[in-house]
Amino acid sequence: MSKNIRVLINGEWHQLEVDGKESLLDLLRGQLGLTGTKRGCNTGDCGACSVILDGKIVNSCLVLALEVDGKSILTIEGLASKDDLHPLQKSFVEQGAIQCGFCTSGMIMTAKAFLDENPIPSEEEIKAAIAGNICRCTGYVKIVKAIAAVVGGRK
Fold it and tell me: Residues 78-103: what's their mean pLDDT?
């Protein structure tokens, strides 16, 4: 069963035909070519596919494409402005919070959604916010430091 949906992705409306079993992750990567959202575990355990759906962080591998009809999605591709990286993206680079880069987009999107709700968190709150995102390279120290640096720049 396929259905037409209309969805706002990174500020642009799209009219798309989706299969009833298609995930949001498949829609983003396959139909739209937005490959910054990574396929990790495909079971909602790693956070590599995290995107912001109507202001809330979600694992796009667990959301059916049919469910996003009329909704707004922000992916890593929509985070930067045309001329400049988002402060979180800059901080991840500056703090060396990326190694292989596989978890980076999900980690940044999770941090963005979290900071939108809690603009001046403690280090412990940052750690709790990213707990659903797995990184096998950095050990999280640099990731937490990168997020904290953005928070420090807001004060």
Answer: 94
Crossing angle of helices 87-94 and 104-117, rounded to 10°: 130
- How far apart CA 22 and CA 2 sit, in angstroms, is 9
Q: Is 7 found in the same domain as 70?
A: yes
H/E stretch holding 105: helix 104-117
pTM to 2 decimal places: 0.95
**CATH number, position 19:** 3.10.20.30
Cα 7 from Cα 41, distance rounded (Å)? 25
Tokens of 115: 């900071």
Distance CA 109, CA 128 (A): 15
Does 94 lie in the same domain as 60? Answer: no
Band of residue 10 on the pLDDT scale cut at 50, 70, 90: very high
Structure tokens at 62: 């667990």
The last residue of a domain, from among 26, 44, 78: 78
- Domain with 109, as residue range(s), is 87-154
- Residue 15 in contact with residue 4, Cβ under 8 Å? yes
One-letter amino acid of 28: L
The 10s digit of each residue's pLDDT in 20-73 is 999 999 999 999 999 999 999 999 999 999 999 999 999 999 999 999 999 999
